[in-house]
Amino acid sequence: MKSQKIILIFEIILCILVGIGMFLISHFIYADAFRINFVISLLTSWIVITLIDWKKEINTVQPKVRWFTVLLIIITIASFIAYKPDFSYREGKGIVVQHGYKNLSELQDKSIISFGLKNTRLVPNAYLYTGEKNNVKYYILLSPIDGKIETKKIGDGNYLDEYFEMK
């Protein structure tokens, strides 16, 4: 009984650590362009189910790690690795500089939806920068999937101007 309780606590802590780790990586490395809400919801739901069934789970005769916990964590990590963007926000900055943009700066929102760049369900946003080219200031959207760039002139009345005005 006591060893099963320790195993369940370990499973809960592992699910929490995997969820927090994925959130931190998505936020700080991929600028929230990589959506992991579904994965976090799955891990949180599994923790809640474990807590609800706590008494039933600790009364097992033979203590063991539950196979679904292991499967869930493996699938979560594998899907994160398989579907993550091809490059980070910082690497994207280098790509933008290679295209001739200068005075790059980051906005508070580092990723935003783009209507002209490639996206997927898990990577719906593009990285967002501001920069100059030929003494004209632009919003620079960079697809984290294929590295293509879309630009919008700042102050041109485009959807990004409207977004930042409303904010």
Structural overview:
Helix 1 (2-28) runs antiparallel to helix 2. The chain is α+β, with helices and mostly antiparallel strands and 167 residues long. It contains 6 helices and 4 strands; from the N terminus they run αααααββββα. Helices cover 50% and strands 20% of the residues.
A few lines on this structure:
Helix content is 50%, strand content 20%. By secondary structure, it is an alpha+beta fold. The chain has a four-stranded antiparallel β-sheet with strand order 1-2-3-4.
Helix content: 40-55%
Beta-strand fraction estimate: 15-25%
Biggest β-sheet description: 4 strands, antiparallel
> Any idea what the shape is?
elongated
CA-atom Rg in angstroms? 21 Å
Total strand count, please?
4
Order of the strands making up the biggest sheet: 1-2-3-4
Mean pLDDT across the residues is 91
Low-pLDDT segments, ≥5 res = none
Query: Total number of helical segments?
Result: 6
> What is the succession of H and E elements?
HHHHHEEEEH
Oligomerization state: single chain
Helix/strand structural class: alpha+beta
Distance between the termini: 54 Å
Secondary structure layout:
Layout (H helix, E strand, L loop, with lengths): L1 H27 L8 H16 L1 H5 L8 H17 L5 H10 L3 E12 L11 E9 L2 E7 L6 E5 L5 H8 L1
Antiparallel strand pairs: 1-2, 2-3, 3-4
Helix pairs in contact: 1-2, 1-4, 2-4
Name some characteristics of this structure.
four-stranded antiparallel beta sheet; 167 residues; 20% strand
